[in-house]
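Wed. Picked up where I left off yesterday with Pyridoxine/pyridoxamine 5'-phosphate oxidase. The coffee machine is broken again, so keeping this brief.
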Amino acid sequence: MNQDIAQLRRDYAGASLAFDSTPASPFPLFSEWLSAAVDTEKDDANAMTLATVDNNQMPHARIVLLKGFDEQGFVFYTNYQSHKGSELAGNPVAAIVFWWPTLQRQVRVEGHVEQVEKALSDRYFESRPRDSQLGAWVSQQSVEIPGRRWLEERQARFESAFDNVPVERPAHWGGYRIKPHMIEFWQGQPNRLHDRLRFRRRSETAQWDKTHLAP
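Structure written out below (tokens, as returned):
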């Protein structure tokens, strides 16, 4: 093991995450934490690690961006034909992790996944910059390509195809919603005695159970 890496350490001293002063549902707390992260983490507050599982039970993880959330779940957008899209089609479950180092906070989410309503995908697609809209047509995400020139040629082709007309959302591109059954909040504390609160849903429509976990 690289000794320089092995010696890397950080002392945590975050605000307390008290069981009695947190809400019965995780979503108000997540909203509060995300708002604080937007103020402190600059451009990366909505970045999250998304983990999926393929048909061989092999996990895969990558960074994606949270684009919305409510009591139903957490929403992100991607190519349905990508590796993660095919993995979610075969195993519609996922885990996501948010890490906000300035605040010394982490949030873990686990749940089932569904495609969002077409109207919601349409609205979000219309809000994207035109170059990003074209990118959804240009990139056959996760497919092996011969090189950069291939992308540039496809970009020129679709720029011509949509010249002076609105860019339509491709049918293969849209949103997913992670419907959580577990959400865990982690707050860094001194001496590695961190605060951890886990919210677990009793069923799809029931209330949340809240538990204080050992660090």
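Quick read: The chain has a mean pLDDT of 92.
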